[in-house]
Write a structure and sequence with these properties.
mainly alpha, globular
């Protein structure tokens, strides 16, 4: 599970003295543990991925704000955090692979409405592709 990798990183960062990374990993661990406490038996790796993607999205939005405000120091820190979170997430599929799956799903479905196609595609790509990318490709393919 991802939380095990985070625990290993926290220990390694304590030993190496890398406080910035350690604090980020401790923050992520706290988010995961809170969700684990809420869900109990239903907690699994899919839930961990959701939490990490949410953390990633928050940092990406903050990065945009810092860049607009010309706060390069905060933007740099956020970019480093984004990179660390992305390392923890499962590898994302390439745009071409996602587009191929979208086209296959559209051919399989009788109801080719946007919502129906998105639901079917996201079931297959859960955690493997960015929802915004999938949305764009579905819209483009349905036109």
């Amino acid at each position: 599970m991802i939380i095990d990798k985070i625990n290993e990183q926290i220990i390694a960062d304590y030993k190496s003295g890398n406080n910035q990374r350690r604090v980020l990993y401790q923050t992520l661990k706290a988010s995961l543990l809170n969700k684990q406490k809420d869900l109990k038996e239903k907690y699994n790796e899919d839930e961990e991925v959701k939490i990490l993607k949410n953390e990633l999205k928050q940092r990406q939005e903050a990065l945009q704000q810092f860049t607009k405000a010309n706060r390069n120091d905060l933007a740099k820190t956020n970019q480093e955090e984004i990179a660390l979170i992305q390392e923890l997430l499962p590898e994302q599929m390439s745009d071409g692979d996602v587009e191929r799956i979208v086209k296959e799903k559209i051919q399989e479905l009788d109801d080719r409405s946007f919502g129906n196609v998105m639901k079917a595609v996201m079931q297959d790509l859960k955690g493997k592709a960015d929802g915004r990318l999938v949305s764009e490709l579905v819209k483009k393919s349905l036109e």
